[in-house]
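This week, work through this protein record:
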Amino acid sequence: PTSGPNVTVCDPPRLFAWSSEDLHGRVTHSRFRLEPTVVEGPRPQPGTLLVYSAAIGPEHGHPAARTGRQPAEESRPTAEQQRDLRDSMMRTLRSIREVAERSRVAQ
């Protein structure tokens, strides 16, 4: 079974972090950090730098250790998992950017 997202840090408007578990018990830790910045251009404007980071962690409770497999080997994310995570992060960032840019144009 999977577990829904579990908020681990909420410090508006600077930081939001959460973790979630996949079907195999592997936990992913995700974090949004927001920093005020200036958008350069002919007329510099205030903006926000969004930093999105994520890490695939070991299986929750290391069940691999109980089955005789090597926990260190089991906890390493595969290339496919890393690619899926990167693709998911990019989709999320594109969606956030689209919403932010639509909001800016509407003002």
